[in-house]
Design brief:
Shape: globular
CATH superfamily of the largest domain: Metalloenzyme, LuxS/M16 peptidase-like
Number of helices: 16
Oligomer: single chain
Radius of gyration: 23 Å
Strand order of the largest sheet: 1-2-6-3-5-4
CATH architecture of the largest domain: 2-Layer Sandwich
């Protein structure tokens, strides 16, 4: 009989605990996840989720910021956090024997951060530097501008880091209100993978989060409505940075596996059509790729390319042409088979580490409220037929669906031609 390595429990306060025991590994990754991100924020405090992420490691009654960092460093572990449009995560990776320490440090920071005004003022400067770093990195910034171009003023289009003028105004009361509103057991769960014992971890977490109670506020918003907008930011850069694309699919959509295949064939690897045509055959770009980003009720399929300004119109035309080929021509069976094998290989190789396994557990809980096993995912990929694939390309890759964003020295007319 095969032992089930995945387990799910609910603590007395309502927090969910997910684990996957991985035999033959010595490390364990654990994340405290909160289902709140930049799209849940009111406009006047946009960026507060990311600010809160920074502040939770800045000191508690038991530990200073330095002591928090040293506690994990001392055992050879790592600790970090991130904010996305829909989630915030605080995580650590340690040897399995040090998992109790990771639980203690993460729960202490999560529950008992002091949020001192002087720490907030200091960290505000760090965040402003982070925003400036993105602004000085056009191949990163262009993706934020693309989301704004296609989704307009919808909360899902906002930059996760926030805008400088709003970050400057965020104060201690804003952070406390955000934490009180969203950091509650019904939005919080723990995912862990690696060298661990589920029952022992549940016991540790039940004690660590004892007294953590309450209900979060609701923050439902309608899905964004896309527009085929063009946005140009003129800069004196040596390259023109392009991002163009259209609506994708929500995370749990029934056609998601067909979209994964579409992205793989279009620009997801060195053997993809865009990489081969634009870089290998024509030498028009060093970096060109496609990606799909999915959320609870919306998604994007986008292409990035960095090219010479004088080549921009040709690159845009080539991207549109490859999309049209995928939409209008029957898919080659060899290419289709290769894309399926590529997806399955990437999936399995990507799940060899404890951090990626922990993240997968979390995403399954957030978007499906259950664990989708590897066998189910592989079967979903295999079940996509050429007709199903073609129907998806015709629905998504429409000529009138493209939004285009650029950063660099190019007139708007060049993108519209």
């Amino acid at each position: 009989m095969t032992t089930c390595l995945y387990r799910r429990d609910v603590l007395p306060n309502g927090m969910v605990v997910l684990t996957e025991q991985m035999p033959y590994v010595k490390s364990a990754s654990i994340g405290v996840w909160v289902k709140v991100g930049s799209r849940d924020e009111a406009p006047e405090v946009a960026g507060v989720s990311h600010f809160m992420e920074h502040m939770l490691f800045k000191g508690t009654d038991r530990r200073s910021a330095e002591q928090i960092a040293k506690a994990i460093d001392a055992v050879g572990g790592t600790m970090d956090a991130f904010t996305s449009r829909e989630n915030t995560c605080f995580f650590a990776k340690v040897l399995g024997e040090h998992l109790p320490l990771a639980v203690d440090v993460l729960s202490d920071a999560f529950l008992h951060s002091r949020l001192e005004s002087e720490d907030i003022a200091r960290e505000r400067q760090v965040i402003l530097q982070e925003i400036k770093m993105v602004e000085d990195t056009p191949d990163d910034l262009v993706h934020d501008l693309f989301a704004e171009a296609i989704w307009g003023n919808h909360p899902a289009a906002r930059p996760i880091l926030g805008r400088k003028e709003i970050v400057m105004r965020l104060m201690r009361d804003d952070l406390r209100r955000h934490k009180d509103a969203f950091y509650r057991p019904d939005r919080t769960f723990v995912a862990a993978a690696g060298d661990l014992d589920h029952d022992r971890l549940v016991d540790l977490l039940a004690r660590a989060f004892d007294g953590f109670e309450g209900r979060s506020v609701r923050s439902n918003s309608a899905p964004p409505v896309s527009t085929a907008a063009v946005r140009v930011e003129a800069r004196e850069t040596s390259q023109l940075h392009l991002c163009l694309g259209m609506d994708g699919l929500p995370y749990g959509h029934e056609d998601r596996y067909a979209l994964y295949l579409l992205n793989a064939i279009l620009g997801g690897s060195m053997s993809s059509r865009l990489f081969q045509e634009i870089r290998e055959k024509r030498g028009l770009a060093y970096s060109v790729y496609s990606y799909q980003a999915s959320y609870r009720d919306c998604g994007l399929l986008a292409v990035y390319a960095g090219t010479n300004p004088e080549s921009s119109s040709q690159v845009v035309d080539l991207i549109r042409a490859e999309c049209a080929r995928l939409r209008d021509e029957p898919i080659d069976h060899g290419d289709f088979r290769q894309a399926k094998d590529q997806l399955k290989g990437n999936l399995l190789l990507g799940l060899e580490g404890t951090s990626s396994r922990m993240t997968r557990l979390a995403k399954m809980e957030i978007y499906f409220q259950r664990n989708c096993g590897l066998e189910e995912i592989i079967a979903g990929i295999e079940q996509v037929s050429p007709d199903h694939f073609q129907a998806l390309t015709q629905r998504i890759l429409r000529d009138d669906a493209f939004a285009v964003t650029s950063i660099g020295p190019v007139p708007q007319a060049a993108l519209l031609s």
